[in-house]
Amino acid sequence: MSRHPAPDELLLDYAAGALPDGPALAVALHVALDPRSQRTVDRLNAVGGALIEREPVADFGAIDDAVLEKALARLEEVPVEPRPAAPGRRHQAFEWAPAPLVPHLRPGMDWRRVMGKFDEIRLDLPGDFHRVSLLRLESGRGLPEHRHAGYEYTVVLQGGYTDETGNYGVGDFAVGPGDHRHEPIADPGEPCIALIVVENPIVLTGPWGRWLNPLVSRGWI
Amino acid sequence: MLSAEEAADLIEAIAIRQDRAAFARLFQYFAPRVKAFIMRSGADPEAAQEVAQEALIMVWRKAASFDRTKASASTWLYTIARNKRIDHLRRNNRPAIDTDDWLTVFAPEDDDADKSVLAGQTYTRLKALLGGLSADQLVVIEKAFFEDKTHTAIAEELKLPLGTVKSRIRLALARLREALEKDEP
């Protein structure tokens, strides 16, 4: 069980289907790794079920019998699919990837070194305005000190890291508020791998920041 | 009326023997409710009916994935209807990830870790619990589910500080947790 669960309001946004794809993926990965958050989402889904049951049907919900006939006719072409294999099967090349991440991992995807400091895989979520990346940091290495213009969500998928807000292990979820400067350092042991979802471009605050920021904002690094 | 038990039996009848009569009963019970639910997000009746129909067809396709020990029929249907609503909203914008994949999200990877069975009696309790939330809490929860708004958007709409909305959500969830945990082993 993780020590840093996603906040309740974000689990509600997720269960209600209100999150854009990037943040929804971050919450889905956290939920897959954290039984307690899974339980909360199960409960929220049950609230959704209860709200549907409670809907009055007499007035605007009414559906013509012809619509049922049409649906029944369509079933001829729709097979009942066999029960899927147990979820949670691991991706071959990325064995640390929880099930909800697997559909986003394309063949040939590989780590790319950034600023000689860490490795990144950018995920492409069409139609979403977030920057969604997998980051890999060797033990003892840090990300350049930076702050965020918007919010940032982080889910740890392997290893762990520490910053001034605490220590984060597999399944932990961190919300980075805007205007918050931080410098995460990977913990000893295997490299730290995390999914990071950023609303707005990151602003580097270190000495090289003013040269590198234009590249970041253009999505080049 | 359709009890949680009956609804689960009908879904299993589809999984086991492609039972069309079972589908028709589920459709008659759930399609109007899903339609009414979808209309709350501002969809017109035709679009809402389309989403309801697509959701029920998905119930037929995925019937074998339904596990009555993990969720009640209405909970399962809610997750399908929600994903269909997302698909529908996307179609009006741009295509994105196939929300079919999301169905796997609702099956915990570790089966032993969690027996949060929100089926049967627990579910009946939940309906009573919704009535037990304060008006302030209920309005936030309903806005999230009915209008698929994030808590940030809800705060803006209700002209409330973000912290107020967060604490209402946390209180409502604490209440649900407390009441439901009594029922669980």
Structure report:
The complex is a heterodimer of chains A (221) and B (185). Chain A contains 5 helices and 12 strands. Chain A has 221 residues and is an alpha+beta fold. In chain A, the strands form 3 sheets. In chain A, strands 1-2-3-11-5-8 form a 6-stranded antiparallel β-sheet, with helices on one face. A 3-stranded antiparallel β-sheet of chain A has the order 9-4-12. In chain A, strands 7-6-10 form a 3-stranded antiparallel β-sheet, with no helix packed on it. By secondary structure, chain B is mainly α. Chain B has 2 domains: 4-106, RNA polymerase sigma factor, region 2, helix turn helix motif (Rna Polymerase Sigma Factor, Chain: A); 120-181, Arc Repressor Mutant, subunit A, CATH 1.10.10.10. In chain B, helix 5 runs antiparallel to helix 8. The radius of gyration of chain B is 17 Å and the shape is globular. The two termini of chain B are 29 Å apart. Residues 94-98 and 101-120 of chain B have low confidence and may be disordered. Chains A and B meet through helix 1, helix 2, helix 3 and helix 4 of A and helix 2, helix 3, helix 4, helix 5 and helix 6 of B.
